[in-house]
């Protein structure tokens, strides 16, 4: 997501230098505020007025779960920064402050410090072999996350299905807080796994629960220590899941759902449960507030189910799935396995308009946002775009004081006449894996905002194979001296050797996403600057990035194809 709505349609500001003010904000500031801005950049007033500097990625109005005073935030509100210093104050004194603050200071991170930050959340899993053979079409996966929001609003999940075949992997991009992404990352795979179970197995599970016997696990999770579960909500989550499988038992026709149907049903049912739990509430005050936070925040999801040569990708929102294909000549090509659900997708805009009266044709999508506010057109949670106005008022008024005192939860979107405007129903794309399909990249939009899909596939492909296909060095119209050209060639050599400092493909991709210069080369100085930004400013220059790189077993896939 992007600050105050500037997302993909406008270039991000360049990496900030201490002596320059980012253009994103400077135009909107009065002269006194511009003088004060260096103080904010250097963290001296950052915590006082950082809330005025930016808004959350998805909403022009947002629910802050980290601040003691929640309020509606709009783009024009940036001008409130000017009230921090009044015209009556001594301007000469401010000028002196500015001179002091903008004195050039080079305090870049060292390469080991950069590596420490980049590798803090990395995780790798290798599928175990049986009798010395790997019988799975998945060799393993690498994942990583780099926060921009504090705390990070992205989540990731990976699990092996134990009662059925296959592996589930997904990335979840939260907005208006991390609560919804957290809940979906914990719960969605259980709903998918239950949807895939045959009726007889569901009956066995229900009988075991009824008689108090131990349950066989449904999923084997592959989690980084930072990927936590909400223990307080586990009983609530289990009861909702049990109600779902009880309904599947009652409704079953004797046949198991196919994967596409299971994915769609699981997404829709979980979103319905998130909504229902918030309406019903909970006698436990913590849980009562938690389910409301989950429902009023939102999350997109991009999930892959891999079983043999069958790859299904279910996508809701604007995270993406990309297949890395190695051609016969060794070069790499990209196959997109998801579509963004936003204003850049014409069929999605058409779908949205067709679901509402003709009188709303001009207001449903405004400024490339749903009702002028929300960037993705499909998401979990976000009940402000799904519930009727009466239901919203009733839930807020009967809810805890933290909710009732929050301006965002009481705010009704403009032109709100025929809800729901938002759905969590995924678009499912099927792909039959071929031996030349080497890997799958699942990533939140923080990656795709900074890198083209072909570059992503090339970087990952060359990392995994160790083979680098050198293109003629292009300087893209820049005038370069012979010395600069020599420097670029030396950087290219250094880049090849730097591959070996990353033991994780997702980490390697993040290094390029954050540190690449205009020539497509990782620039340590740039990388250091970007990772040194204080949390108040980091979100202005990039989004949270979450990546899973799944590596396929070409031998097993080839054997499947021949069979």
Q: How is the main sheet built?
A: 7 strands, antiparallel
Terminal CA distance? 44 Å
Number of helical stretches of at least 4 residues: 21
Tell me the β content.
Answer: 15-25%
Low-confidence stretches: 1-12, 14-105
Shape: globular
- Rounded radius of gyration (Å): 25 Å
Helix content percent band: 25-40%
Q: Say how many strands there are.
A: 15
The quaternary structure here is single chain
| Overall average residue pLDDT | 80
Structural class: alpha+beta
Characterization of this structure:
The longest helix has 22 residues, at 259-280. Helix 6 packs parallel to helix 8 and helix 7 crosses helix 8. The radius of gyration is 25 Å and the shape is globular. Residues 1-12 and 14-105 have low confidence and may be disordered. The protein is an alpha+beta fold. Strand 10 and strand 11 (369-370) form a beta hairpin. The strands form three sheets. Strands 3, 4, 5, 6, 7, 12 and 13 form a seven-stranded antiparallel sheet that branches. The chain has a six-stranded antiparallel sheet with strand order 1-2-15-14-8-9. It has helices spanning 23-26, 31-41, 46-53, 91-101, 111-118, 179-196, 199-211, 234-251, 259-280, 285-296, 346-354, 389-398, 401-404, 407-410, 445-448, 453-465, 482-498, 505-515, 524-532, 535-541, 554-562; strands at 123-126, 138-146, 154-161, 167-175, 219-221, 298-307, 310-316, 320-326, 332-336, 365-366, 369-370, 380-381, 427-432, 437-443, 545-552.
